[in-house]
Amino acid sequence: MMEQLELEQLQAATAWDVDGEKLGNVSQVHLDGVSGEPAWVTVGLGLLNSRENFVPLAGSRLDGDSLFVAVTKDVIKGSPDFSSEEGLTPEDEDLLRTYYNL
Questions:
Q1: What is the pTM of this model?
Q2: Measured between alpha carbons, how far is 89 from 94 in angstroms, rounded to an integer?
Q3: Contacts of 82 by beta carbon, 8 Å cutoff, 6+ apart
Q4: How far does the chain reach from its first CA to its final CA, in angstroms?
Q5: Non-local CB neighbours of 30 within 8 Å, separated by 6+ positions
Q6: How far apart are CA 18 and CA 97, in angstroms?
Q7: Lower Cβ count inside 10 Å, N or C end of the chain?
């Protein structure tokens, strides 16, 4: 179970892709619908990109205020587009899991 402190660290983190390229600041942390554990973060890629991209936490590591995710920026850019405001439905989570091969 993730501690509250870790959750706060995640929400304040800067995300980096698997190749070390800066993605941007974590906007939101989304919990898995079944386990209640953090499963996804949203990150806006680039200054003008208002779209929030869902990025899996599977295989990621938090190091201080940096979150290193296990996928590339290009893969994240191609991910399914959902509104991060409404949260993820079980169907949305399934689509994301399939897309990211989780």
A1: 0.88
A2: 9
A3: 54, 88, 92, 96
A4: 20
A5: 38, 39, 40, 41, 42, 54, 84, 87, 88
A6: 18
A7: N
Give, as one character, the DSSP assignment of residue 74: H
Using one digit for the tens of pLDDT, what is the confidence trace for 5-38? 688 889 999 999 999 999 999 999 998 888 888 9
> Could you write out the DSSP letters of every residue in 28-49?
EEEE-TTT-SEEEEEEE-SSS-
Bridge partners (DSSP) listed for residue 42: 28, 54
In the block, tokens 């169907």 appear at 91
Strands (E), 4-96: 14-16, 22-31, 38-44, 52-56, 61-63, 66-68
